């Protein structure tokens, strides 16, 4: 019988001699191999089990339960490796190595006026990076001794250093590599996640940089107090010498500053800096960098702080606006930057003087002057920058009042209207919005030019509705107005959409140049080339349209609401006053200057009868006279008609309107009880009525306009 065959019942039957057609039957083995048979059956069971596992799918629980510990261990190692690779890739994108070469604080930038006069200086004081090979040995030794004694032996994290710092108080819990990672790549937040990222970046830096490169970048970026960043800047500031020439005691004092630069700054706390320096010298002795005798022989370092250009302010209204724009075009570097601006130092001084002597009665003021191409030459963002650096030219969004009417009339002129065309000037008696004219003065019809000059509210709203809000908004947008302007709102015609004085004045600059939109800018720009001219979105009005709007602007300033701003040269402008005298504006241009003036209270409370045709117009006129070097303008002829410029809602002054008298802020008010004469800044007023001449106290600045 062949090996491996085991007799069963059939094989044990006797052979039938008659069955000749059947093949011969094998003979049973006398010694069957049962173990081999069992082995083959076991192999069959294993094959079935393997096949069952192969047919399992990953979403079935048995698929995972059948995995061995070795399988899980291998997969875990692979997953950890993949995660580490992803973290390294994430670091390569979010924390590029080149960033550790850049200064951690913006370098100092000095702004110059057009004539070269320094006007502001801001930013950190940084100098060129240091090279370790150029420094005397005691300089890096001082920093290593106090900050990271095992710097050259650890891999970015030093558990022994952490334990030693906790026990002795010397050094810090972070290595020099970790500190470089922290102030170069991370924020100052205190959290476990930040510490984890700090450690990971430290390992990464150690893998990509040499120890000397890490130390060089650390010394070139660390903060040393007094706005000094980097060892070179600190060495020059405190001792007026290059770091390559530092003495051991000077290096020890600088190394001691890093723990708390403001607390230990020797210019203000020399005793603290000296005690900290002694700790550094003691650490240097322990590390073998100095002997006891050398340490005892070190003198106290003498400061040599040489201040220069202390009279240059760190901030002005113009500088606060210009510096962020300047830094956008500056590449990160350690070099100081000196940038010329468009500011005219003579015009800036003139603007400050004019604003300072204006009778504001406690209100705030803003003035911006620019060329028709957008070059800003003067800016006053408030009464006192030291008390309030909030810039009311670029940051405050206030209602422009009737200065917005210019865009309504421009839209009408573009739609085919003419200055001599008439429009009803009768009261609006239908609808929910019913604006009024000053002192309820109406007429059957009024020309567009006269309506603009007298600032008729009902005529402006009717014209707005006739032209269409979409056309008016489109015109304002083309001139650069970005404020929200809801379609279909008739009050928009009277300036109810808040905007900055800067964008309003720039829109008028577009009219002055007949080239819009105008972008205000603090740095000179070259002339546009033919390609830039061809591809730019600059537009202009038709010649007839531009002439017509200038005719209206001239009428408003010469015989209308802006007559207090009249000049002996061609002048164009518009007044604006909002509800309850909350905002008063005058925007206009003459010569090569476009100037906007705003007066109001920061808390939006009413002023004492100040309209766009009074104080703002006088400020504009006084600035323009000095800026254009004009002779004094003739006194405006006083007439019986009041300044019709008034609030937006309920809109314009009714009976009791104030009539400007002269140039010193005096006004005449006529109502049903008599005539009242008052002057800005004078606490009393004269009243002539049926009871005769009476001297009475002037109303408080917050009082509402007369009924």
TrEMBL record:
Biological or metabolic pathway of the protein: Cell wall biogenesis; peptidoglycan biosynthesis
GO MF, one example: serine-type D-Ala-D-Ala carboxypeptidase activity
Domain spans labelled Penicillin-binding protein transpeptidase: 367-624
TM ranges: 70-93
Composition bias type Pro residues, residue spans: 698-707
Reactions mediated catalytically: Preferential cleavage: (Ac)2-L-Lys-D-Ala-|-D-Ala. Also transpeptidation of peptidyl-alanyl moieties that are N-acyl substituents of D-alanine; [GlcNAc-(1->4)-Mur2Ac(oyl-L-Ala-gamma-D-Glu-L-Lys-D-Ala-D-Ala)](n)-di-trans,octa-cis-undecaprenyl diphosphate + beta-D-GlcNAc-(1->4)-Mur2Ac(oyl-L-Ala-gamma-D-Glu-L-Lys-D-Ala-D-Ala)-di-trans,octa-cis-undecaprenyl diphosphate = [GlcNAc-(1->4)-Mur2Ac(oyl-L-Ala-gamma-D-Glu-L-Lys-D-Ala-D-Ala)](n+1)-di-trans,octa-cis-undecaprenyl diphosphate + di-trans,octa-cis-undecaprenyl diphosphate + H(+)
Alphabetic keyword roster: Carboxypeptidase, Cell shape, Cell wall biogenesis/degradation, Glycosyltransferase, Hydrolase, Membrane, Multifunctional enzyme, Peptidoglycan synthesis, Protease, Transferase, Transmembrane, Transmembrane helix
The protein's name in its UniProt record: Penicillin-binding protein
UniProt organism field: Erythrobacter dokdonensis DSW-74
């Amino acid at each position: 019988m062949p090996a491996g065959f085991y007799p069963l019942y059939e094989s044990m039957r006797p052979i039938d001699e008659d069955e000749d057609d059947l093949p011969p039957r094998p003979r049973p083995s006398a010694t069957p191999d049962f173990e081999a048979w069992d082995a083959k059956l076991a192999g069959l069971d294993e094959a079935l089990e393997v096949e069952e596992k192969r047919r399992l799918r990953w979403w079935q629980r048995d698929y995972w339960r059948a995995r061995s510990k070795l399988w899980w261990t291998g997969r875990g190692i692979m997953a950890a490796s993949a995660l580490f690779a992803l973290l390294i890739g994430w670091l390569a994108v979010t924390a590029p190595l080149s960033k550790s070469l850049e200064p951690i604080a913006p370098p100092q930038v000095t702004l110059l006026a057009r004539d070269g006069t320094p006007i502001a200086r801001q930013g950190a004081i940084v100098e060129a990076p240091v090279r370790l090979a150029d420094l005397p040995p005691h300089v890096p030794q001082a920093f290593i001794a106090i900050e990271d004694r095992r710097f050259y032996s650890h891999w970015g994290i030093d558990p022994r250093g952490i334990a030693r710092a906790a026990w002795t108080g010397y050094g810090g819990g972070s290595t020099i590599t970790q500190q470089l990672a922290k102030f170069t790549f991370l924020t100052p937040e205190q959290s476990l996640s930040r510490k984890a990222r700090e450690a990971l970046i430290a390992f990464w830096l150690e893998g990509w940089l040499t120890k000397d490169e890490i130390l060089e970048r650390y010394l070139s970026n660390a903060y040393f107090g007094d706005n000094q960043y980097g060892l070179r800047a600190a060495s020059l500031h405190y001792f007026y010498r290059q770091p390559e020439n530092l003495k051991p005691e000077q290096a020890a004092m600088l190394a001691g500053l890093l723990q708390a630069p403001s607390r230990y700054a020797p210019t203000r706390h020399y005793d603290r800096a000296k005690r900290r320096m002694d700790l550094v010298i003691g650490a240097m002795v322990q590390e073998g960098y100095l002997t006891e005798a050398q340490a005892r022989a070190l003198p106290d370092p003498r400061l040599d702080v040489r201040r220069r250009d202390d009279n240059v302010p760190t901030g002005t209204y113009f500088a606060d606006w210009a510096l962020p724009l300047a830094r956008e075009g500056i590449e990160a570097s350690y070099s100081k930057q000196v940038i010329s601006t468009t500011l005219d130092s003579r015009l800036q001084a003139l603007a400050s003087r004019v604003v300072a002597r204006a009778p504001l009665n406690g209100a705030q003021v803003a003035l911006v002057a620019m060329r028709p191409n957008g070059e800003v030459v003067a800016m006053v963002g408030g009464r006192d920058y030291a008390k309030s650096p909030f810039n009311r030219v670029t940051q405050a969004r206030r209602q422009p009042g009737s200065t917005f009417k210019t865009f309504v009339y421009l839209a009408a002129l573009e739609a085919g209207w003419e200055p001599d065309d008439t429009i009803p000037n009768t009261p609006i008696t239908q609808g929910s919005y019913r604006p009024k004219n000053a002192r309820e003065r109406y007429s059957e019809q009024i020309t567009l030019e006269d309506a603009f000059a007298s600032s008729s509210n009902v005529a402006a709203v009717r014209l707005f509705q006739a032209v269409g809000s979409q056309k008016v908004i489109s015109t304002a947008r083309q001139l650069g107005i970005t404020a929200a302007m809801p379609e279909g709102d008739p009050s928009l015609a009277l300036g109810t959409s808040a905007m900055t004085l800067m964008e309003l004045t720039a829109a008028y600059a577009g009219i002055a140049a007949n080239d819009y939109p105008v972008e205000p800018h603090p740095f000179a720009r070259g002339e546009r080339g033919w390609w830039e001219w061809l591809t730019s979105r600059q537009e202009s009005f038709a010649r007839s349209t531009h002439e017509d709007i200038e005719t209206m602007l001239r009428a408003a300033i010469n015989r209308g609401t802006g007559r207090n701003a009249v000049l002996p040269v061609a002048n164009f402008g518009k007044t604006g006053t909002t509800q309850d005298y909350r905002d008063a504006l005058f925007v206009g241009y003459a010569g090569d200057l476009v100037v906007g003036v705003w007066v109001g209270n920061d808390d939006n409370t009413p002023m004492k009868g100040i309209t766009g045709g009074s104080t703002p117009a006088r400020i504009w006129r006084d600035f323009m006279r000095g800026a254009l070097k004009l002779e004094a303008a003739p006194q405006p002829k006083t007439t019986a008609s009041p300044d019709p410029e008034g609030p937006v809602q309920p809109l314009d002054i009714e009976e009791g309107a104030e009539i400007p008298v002269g140039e010193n802020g005096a006004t005449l008010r006529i109502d049903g009880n008599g005539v009242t004469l008052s002057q800005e800044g004078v606490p009393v007023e004269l009243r002539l009525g049926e009871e005769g001449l009476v001297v009475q106290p002037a109303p408080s600045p917050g009082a509402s306009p007369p009924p």
